[in-house]
Amino acid sequence: MQLFENRNYASAGFFVEELARSGLRNVVICPGSRSSPLSVSFWRNTKIKTWMHLDERSASFFALGMAKELNEPVAIVCSSGTASANFMPAVVEAHYSDIPILVLTADRPADQVDWGALQTIDQTRIYGRHVKWSLDMPPASTEVSYLTYVRSVANRAYFTSIGTPPGPVHINFHLSEPLEPVELPEGFLVMDDSSELALMGRPAGKPLIEASDGIKIPREEDITDLVSLFNSSNKGLIICGPQTDSRLADAVTQLARKLNYPILCDVLSQVRNGYHDKGLVVDAYDAFLRDGNLARSLIPEIVIRFGSLPVSKPLVQYLEQNRQSYQILIDESDGWRDPDRVISRVLHVDPISFCSDVSSRINNPPRLGNWKDVWLNLSEISRSYATEALEEFDSMFEGRIFPELSKFLPEGSIVFAGNSMPIRDMDTFMPISDNSTKFLSNRGVSGIDGVISSALGVSAVSGKNTFLVIGDISFFHDMNGLLAAKAHSLNCTIIVVNNDGGGIFSFLPQYAYDDIFEPLFGTPHGLTFRAAADLYGLEYFLVNNWEEFGVAIKQSLTTEGTTIVEIPGDRDSNVTMHRMVWERVSSSIHSLPLRFREAFSINYQATDQDDSYNEGEV
Questions:
Q1: Per residue in 107-117, pLDDT tens?
Q2: What do you get for the CA distance between the two ends of the chain, in Å?
Q3: How far does CA 607 lie from the centroid of its chain?
Q4: Which contiguous run of DSSP H or E holds residue 110?
Q5: Percentage helix, strand, coil, to 5, in the chain?
Q6: How far is residue 27's CA from residue 485's CA, in Å, rounded to a whole number?
Q7: If we measure between CA atoms, which residue out of 280, 253, 251, 286 comes closest to residue 267?
């Protein structure tokens, strides 16, 4: 005989147990009365680790960070009403960045919805098309057929979330009283031969159904056609956008070596750093592609793009300007990540399989000219002059944070960048290294909310040194998330750049309008964050030079818990220094001896750099 207190706890208990059988190992729970049967059932299950978080929005991003790092589903639980609405930003980010999370919301009984009951909103399909599957559970019951259904739903929810592409799944539970684990006769379940599967599940702890999505193998005709195209093309590029599969680095660099194509690697591609072959890796393209005349002289015949759209706007604009090139998107998700409509061919296949299949058939075709050398030398020259410019600034330039941080990163660290300026500066200024650092960011919809919580979620399950670089507005948005650092004793170093407002807006055309810029875009807040560190019992450093920065980072690596390192900044000077770096790079390339430029086929008219460029969206 299997014993539960009442029908709610029987239903929730079987649901949670089947999730554990399917492979769930972590759940983030927000407190609430209506969700009690779910929360208590998770708490009782020894195979699933429970993480408590008081704020629903921060909790959902915390779960997202965990799922991003683990590449496996993480569940989140909340009570009814607006609690479920606070999950929305993280659900949207999970949808657009292919992160598997299980969103479990408690709800009032269906007959109380839309009748004025407290803490009640319409939660049916509340996340719309931003989830892969959404289901309203019928009222709890102890009938054997219902309990079999409960197991089936849990099983399907888990495996749907990890199917290609991964993503969020939402199950809404209409729960009536009693919500506490009070013992009622309905909770005593008698097991017989006909009910064994429903009550006990599959033997040996196996899930009800063992599902497998499988790998999307490229079609033979596609590979044959593309190999013929690659063999006859001299000027090709490989673009690696944001993605988290650590296997791509070896696969794509082997493909590049066979094709003799340079690789333009986004910092979030996981291809810039590590012990794989980086001989064809180009990392400073963001600097020299800002020179419009130079960019127009580098016309590719073929572009092979992996992953999401790159962070660098100059690179995205370069791809748009070369829409006459044959551009191929290798993307295992079912989406069409081509906002500028430049792609000539989309293959929804596994990138690793694609690289392997093509590499095995390329016959080391001869390449005319020195196409790859142009890119590699431009990258080397640009990196050198950019570094030289960084070191000449007397004040603390935001772009220098990442080169300085790289000096202290232990092997295998994780660096998480906030959106707006930090991710752009990380993409532009973080140097190539053999250190197998993982670089992460919430680039699904590139929001500035929930960033602290996402990074702390990564820290919670990675067991690795985790660093977050974040702007002050984004930090303010998610200060509630710092509670997780204290509550779960997490080790994370948070570097907050405080330039008293929205720094990236100073790069936009609106900056020229003095009467509206500060109140509507600059939005100064006058805050510093020592008090936030004190509130949550975290270590804190205010640094005013790079020597102090180094001391703070080294101290954070030897101190248990989370450390906040605050760097004061100035929005106006930040814009000026960024533009000085770009001008140094552009003018240095222009001033190369003619014979040197001709040797690298850099044949363009040396003119002033186009200063109409702006960062665009935040």
A1: 998 888 888 78
A2: 58
A3: 38
A4: none
A5: 45, 15, 40
A6: 16
A7: 286
